[in-house]
Structures are given as structure tokens and as C-alpha cells.
Batch of 2 targets.
Target 1
Amino acid sequence: MKVTAILHGSDGRARGVKVQDLMNGQEYEVKAKAVINATGIFVDSIMEMDVPTHEHMVKPSQGVHLVLDKSFLQSDYAIMIPKTDDGRVLFAVPWHDKVVVGTTDTLREHPELEPQALESEIEFILNTAGRYLTRKPQRSDVLSVFAGLRPLAAPKKEGKSTKEISRSHKIFVSENKLITITAGVFSLNLSMFVLASVVSRGLRFFLFAWLIWRYGAPIKVFIDKYFNILAIAFTVLLIGSFVAVKYLIQ
Ligand SMILES: Cc1cc2nc3c(=O)[nH]c(=O)nc-3n(C[C@H](O)[C@H](O)[C@H](O)COP(=O)(O)OP(=O)(O)OC[C@H]3O[C@@H](n4cnc5c(N)ncnc54)[C@H](O)[C@@H]3O)c2cc1C
């Protein structure tokens, strides 16, 4: 299903999408309370459907990986070359009976559905990896080539190289309340989220355990005495948070 248009309500807010089934061309309208645009390098085209004059948010950065025979890396461990000629990191990772080597970081002007690896990128990987593998791979040793585009946040200043552009996530809410989220690195944001969540849960647990350990008996007396008031306060808080969430996504 491909999103082909954003549907707006009478209040101007994004209230759904028009999609097309690419197998048979059939079009559908999908209504929603809120629309979240998480289409990677294509976020700008969706944002344009919402506000045609919007400023571009993403700059695609091409990354290429090569697949070589495993004999080029006689180890079950991956290697990382932290500093290459142009300052980028290169990996060689064992994968079944092959080894995957990459990557590059090449700024591209436009998002493309089928990105193509540049010969200069393939040469860069072969030359750099050749210094660390069992022997220098030739062009004819390349079994397969993968190319992908990372959705990097567009820099404010022109002329920045991709490795200088922020890879952190960006969240943007348009004037019509279309929510757009994008990130140049998936795992970093995920690990930060997991870390934050684990730390906050851990802190809450220790605070709770300390309160029970320190004031166990008085807390029990307090709960027995004010049970009705506490129950009412809890119910009000619960209903209040449901109303707040409902209001926020309207
Ligand atoms: C070569 C390379 C190496 C990378 N290495 C790493 C790494 O080591 N660690 C790491 O954390 N990250 C890495 N990344 C980055 C990571 O892949 C991206 O940050 C992540 O995929 C972004 O997730 P996303 O959900 O925003 O977009 P995507 O994963 O691109 O998903 C967007 C989705 O939207 C869909 N879509 C687009 N347009 C439409 C439309 N009009 N209608 C309907 N659907 C649509 C697409 O089909 C796709 O399914 C790498 C990227 C590349 C290219």
C-alpha cells in the first residue's frame, strides 16, 4: 500500500491517508485520529502532500556493503577498522560462508527507490578492506553489492559531509498536526530509549522498596486510615490521564 495523499478534516488537521494497492491499482481512504509519517528517506514527499511548501527535512546518505567469500576473513569474529582514509568506520562481518564488508557514506541529492552503488564506493571498500583481510579482494571477487539510503537530518548549513550531519532522531509536527519522525541511526535511538526506560524503572523500584523498608508500618496505618480518599484520588487520576491522552491525539 502506498500513501498517495494526506486527508484533512474540516479543521484542517491531518485525519487520514489515501493509499493505493500497488498490486491492482485499487485506492482506499484510511481515516485516523492522528497520522504519523515514518517513511525514512521519503518523509519529505509525505510532508509535501500535507503542506506543499514545506522545507526538506532529510538528506539521503548512501551506504554500500559488499559480499565476499569467507576465505577473505579467516575468523569467526568481525573486525572493525575505526579510522579509514576519509575518517569513516569500516566493518567486515562473517555471514554464513561469506563476509560482508562496508560501509560508505555518500551524500545523495534525492531519495531513490533503487539506489545504485557508485564504482568509487566499491573501490573504496575493496582498497580499505584489502589492507586488513587475508588478501586484497579484486572487483571480480565481489559476489553481491547492497546499497541503501540513510535518512539523515538535513543540515542547516550547505556543504557539510554526511559524517558531520546529525544522526539523532528528529520529530516534527506540521501546522496540520501531521507527525513526522525520522532517524539516521536506528539502534542508537532504540538503545537510548531502552536505557532511559530501564534506568527509570530501576529508580522507581528502589524508591518504592526503600519507602516500604523505611516506613512500612506507618504506610500501612496511613493506607488503612485514608483508603477511601486514596481510592477516589487514584480513580480521578486514571480517568484524568485517559482524557488527557484522548485530548492530545485529537
Ligand atoms: C547502508 C546502511 C547501513 C546502516 N547501518 C545502520 C547501523 O549499523 N545501525 C543503525 O542503527 N542504523 C543503521 N542504518 C540506518 C537505519 O537503517 C535507519 O535509521 C532506519 O531504517 C530508519 O528507520 P525508519 O523506520 O525511519 O525508515 P525505514 O526503515 O526506511 O522505513 C520506512 C518505511 O516507509 C515505507 N514508505 C516509504 N514511502 C511510503 C509511502 N509513500 N507509502 C507507504 N509506505 C511508504 C517504506 O517502504 C519503508 O517500509 C543504516 C542504513 C543504511 C542505508
Target 2
Amino acid sequence: MKNSKQGTSYTTLPKYYDRFVQARGQNYDDFVNWIITLSNIYNLNLKRILSLGSGNCTAEILLAKKDFFVSCVDNSTSMIQESVKKFLKNHILNYEIIKSSITDYKLNTKVEMAFSHYFCINYLLTIKELEDCFTLTYLNLKNHGIFLFDVIQDLPNPIKEKVLFYNNETFKSVLEMTYLKDNIGCTNFYNFFKLKNGLYDLVEEIHYQRGYTIEEITNLLIKAGFKRSKITISKYLNYTPINDSDRRIVFIAQK
Ligand SMILES: C[S@@+](CC[C@H](N)C(=O)[O-])C[C@H]1O[C@@H](n2cnc3c(N)ncnc32)[C@H](O)[C@@H]1O
């Protein structure tokens, strides 16, 4: 067990991560097609892409297959191990993996697009970490390049608990979510993955994530160098304005 605020996230789950996200309905083809559409809308002449919190790199492999060079940053050893296996299996060479926090990574070549996908930004628990990530990403973008990321708009306050279940033939999951102070949520994941012999493997992890308001994020993007007039907030996979009821929203900031 790591220190309490790091939890145990992405230590044992990576082995089953694809099954985990599939059960939650995440479609990486749709995401990749959407960001390529966005790159055309923004006239990016896209060649290099930076992914922050790249995980096991499903989206990044789809992008590399389309001939973009992808730089993948993640700090989970197990997630990186899974991604390396996938890159090798797909015979892909146009990528690099940088094991680092997304708050202090080093990149050799600037990119036309940086993205952070599937609530990675919510794993940053302090304003300082968010500021460091945004500032560094601004510096690593070419002029007119875009930085996009999805976030949970806000975690509910005050403190409360709820339990959610996912259940299908090969995967069962119980989530105990506790909302702590400062808009930080602690989720205890109890995941059961069916093995070939019919038994289940239990994977338990504790994840801490933080909700940020639109205003907090916008102000930090501006502090990092982005202009307010070049920050767009959009629905996920749909370049249209958000509603109050949208939990998953996307920031698109152009340098
Ligand atoms: C929900 S997963 C998303 C993975 C991938 N982007 C996807 O779309 O499936 C979150 C990822 O963020 C990574 N992560 C969380 N905090 C991080 C940090 N401070 N620095 C680098 N990676 C981080 C985790 O290791 C994990 O791989």
C-alpha cells in the first residue's frame, strides 16, 4: 500500500484494464476518430501527439497505426508494462513511452496535439499539480496546437457514500465511493474478473480523484498561458456546448 492519498491505483488493475473499461462502455475508436476530426477543425497538420496518463495505450496504438508519432506519459509501472506488450504485438515503432508524472515530464519535440483521456486529470489532487501539468503542456505545444482533456465536472459535496455495481458474465465490480473534503473522492474498487477455469480473480484498488469546477480549470489554463478566447468546453465526442447535467466534459485549449 502506498501513502493514503496515492492509494493503490493501477497496480493490479492493469492486467484487466481492457475488460474493465469495456464493461463501462468506453469506445476508443470513437475517441480517436473524434480527435482527428478536431485536428481538422483546428487545421493542425497533425504529426506528433502527446498523451498524458496514457495507461495501456489503446487509443495511442490506434493513432500510431494512422502514422502519427505518439509520446505516451504515465507513472504506473504496470500500465506501462501492458502498453509495451501491446505496442510490440502490433509491431509499432512510431512511439515513445515516458515514465513520469504528468506534472513533470520531459519531452524532446513539441507536438501539435496533447490530450489526456479518461479522467486522468482528476487524479491530480492539488491545484499546484494541475497548474504544473497545464504549464508544462503549454510549453510542449507548438503554436496553434491544442490541448484537450476530459474531466468529471465536479464531485458532489457534501460528504456522502454510495455503492455502484457492474455485473456481466465475465466481470463484476463493486465501487464504494466516499466523498472526502476539498472535493476529493475516494473510490474502493472491488473487481472480480472471470478466469478460464470459471473462478474469479479479485482485484482491489483504492483510487483518489478530485473534482474541479469549470472556473478553477479555466483560470489555471489561463495562468499556464492559454487565452480565454481560445478555450472551448465541449461535450465528450461531440463538439457542442455542455449542459449542467453533463458529468464528463472536455476542455479544448489552443495555444
Ligand atoms: C483512467 S486511466 C486512463 C488511461 C488511458 N488514458 C485511457 O484512456 O484508457 C488513468 C491513467 O492515468 C495515470 N495517472 C494518474 N495520475 C498520473 C500522474 N500524476 N502522472 C502520470 N500518470 C498518471 C494512471 O497510471 C492511469 O494509467
